[in-house]
Design goal:
This protein is mainly α and 513 residues long. The chain has helices at residues 2-26, 30-58, 60-79, 87-116, 122-147, 154-157, 159-172, 186-204, 206-209, 214-236, 250-279, 285-313, 315-336, 342-369, 376-415, 421-433, 449-487, 503-509.
Length: 513
């Protein structure tokens, strides 16, 4: 299960490293590349609840193997994308099917691990799963930096041997395939997928369509309305996709809120930090991968401590400590971004990673321990849907912030060099939209006035990108601060061993004590 989950984790990080090369070869814009990244995250969020339900109904082993096959075939197709105008659509489609495969793998794999350990060992067990998967995730940026100079397509093809190993180990470990002959809520699955997709699409396209555009708010409002319909439908159907009564448990609700606001920062930071390192710090893809190790180093150490705290004292202390550390780490890191010195940033990057490490495993494990009728796949589906929806929203919102601030700052930089306001705004917008490529490649060729001004301003543009990222990282600090406030809602109660098999009955009476 570690190998299967690591494949999903690695793919989130490795593509961020290759982003500038993908953009350069395929001619994508920054918003186009964010669509490629978001297609994966959005499919994860949209289909996680269905993946968790399918794991319970059809069997955990079957879903791990099926998801792995979907994932690896999609990876091969992503790496085989043709150049030309069809490239962006090709990548978006098959990144989405990759996300579907991951949505089948993840809840089933976590359910296998949860069911294999007694209640008082699950914190350390899942922490170990996340740490080992995270340790292998560290290879993502390093592999990305090593493979990208050869060909960025290899960052997708590398999933093939990992997938083969995951399938072989799944059968060798004789993972059980217990099934629950229940109906699959197809209408609910459609409603939640449409609602999540529409709302994130509106946020993602806000910069391109305009924040005053009817299309932007039709998508956001329509998506939220569909999600409201989904909740109403789930409360009335006999065999729902998600048993929403689990949210009656105050601790479960607190866990879910902490996961949401923490994940607004965790997955996006891998993308934005990687691109910042390559643009503002002029790092190579391999060096950018090493730069991300600061975050993963702190994360790996804290995740193990967080699991031990959960098993001994419950989730509340770990959640409060992690969210507070994460808020401080992101704020201090943001303050150092414009110094353009990696050596001054690493303690704060580690602190931000440690904050996430203290949060992720305890919040996820505590939520799963509160599963209704021991339906671990279903509850894992809920928490991971929230996690990946938050990641997609974070990518969309922070991407919009980056483009807006970057456009304003570059416009001022160019007008200060006597470029006309209208032309400066046009050039600044182009740079902001394509900044995840090499800015040197964006310079107008020739000896015209615009080309001359741009060549003289390139170092200032790199500094402008660092300043724009400051807003993004301060936003991540704010999201961790909100997560801290949500952690205060946790009552501090622990699930007892004897409650593990009959949690559903306790849920009808109220929160577990």
């Amino acid at each position: 299960m570690v190998v299967a989950v690591a494949m999903v984790f690695v793919d989130q990080a490795i593509v961020s490293i290759a982003a500038p090369n993908i953009i350069g070869e395929l001619g994508l814009s920054s918003s186009g590349m964010q669509q490629v990244v978001n297609a994966y995250l959005l499919a994860l969020a949209a289909f996680f609840a269905l993946g968790g339900r399918l794991a319970d109904v059809l069997g955990h082993r079957r879903m791990v193997v099926t998801g792995t096959l979907v994932f690896v075939v999609s990876s091969v197709l992503c790496g085989s994308v043709p150049t030309g105008g069809f490239a962006e659509s090709w990548l978006v489609v098959f990144r989405a099917t990759q996300g579907l495969g991951a949505a089948l793998i993840f809840p089933a794999a976590l359910a296998v691990v949860v069911s294999a350990f007694p209640l008082n060992q699950r914190g350390r067990a899942l922490a170990l799963l996340f740490v080992l998967a995270g340790a292998l995730t560290i290879l993502g940026p390093l592999l990305g930096g090593w493979l990208t100079p050869w060909t960025w397509r290899a960052v997708f093809w590398i999933n093939v041997p990992v997938a083969v190993l995951a399938v072989v180990l799944t059968y060798a470990a004789r993972v059980p395939n217990d099934v629950r002959p229940e109906r699959i809520d197809a209408p609910g699955a459609v409603l939640v997928a449409v609602g999540l997709a529409l709302s994130v699409l509106g946020l993602q396209q806000g910069s391109a369509w305009g924040w005053g555009s009817a299309a932007t708010w039709a998508c956001v409002g329509g998506g939220l309305a569909v999600l409201a319909v989904f909740c109403r439908y789930e409360l009335r159907t006999r065999e729902p996709l998600i048993k929403l009564r689990v949210f009656r448990d105050r601790a479960f609700t607190a866990d879910t809120l902490v996961i949401f606001f923490s994940m607004l920062a965790f997955v996006p930071v891998m993308f934005f930090a990687s691109v910042y390192a390559q643009i503002s710090l002029s790092m190579s893809p391999l060096q950018a991968g090493l730069y991300l190790l600061y975050v993963f180093g702190g994360y790996g150490l804290a995740a193990q401590w967080g699991g031990r705290i959960l098993d001994k004292y419950g989730a509340r202390p770990a959640l409060r400590l992690g969210t507070a550390l994460g808020c401080a780490g992101f704020a201090l890191w943001a303050a150092r971004l414009t110094d353009l010195s990696p050596l001054d940033q690493w303690p704060y990057a580690c602190l931000a990673g440690a904050g996430i490490g203290f949060v992720l495993s305890p919040a996820s494990t505590d939520a799963v321990n509160r599963a209704i009728d021991a339906s671990y796949g279903e509850v894992t589906g809920i928490t991971q849907t929230v996690r990946n929806y938050a990641a997609a929203v974070g990518m969309a919102v922070f991407g919009a912030v980056l483009i807006h601030v970057m456009t304003d700052r570059v416009t001022r930089t160019l007008t200060a060099r006597a470029m006309p306001q209208g032309r400066a705004r046009e050039v600044a917008r182009k740079i902001a939209e394509t900044i995840t490529g090499n800015p040197d490649d964006l310079l107008p060729r020739g000896a015209g006035e615009t080309a001359t001004v741009m060549r003289g301003a390139i170092h200032a543009v790199r500094a402008d990108f660092a300043a724009a990222n400051q807003w993004v990282f301060f936003g991540m600090a704010v999201s961790m601060g909100v997560a801290f406030l949500c952690s205060l809602l946790h009552p501090g109660t622990q699930v007892r061993e004897e409650a593990g098999e009959a949690v559903g009955a306790g849920r009808e009476r109220g929160p577990l004590g």
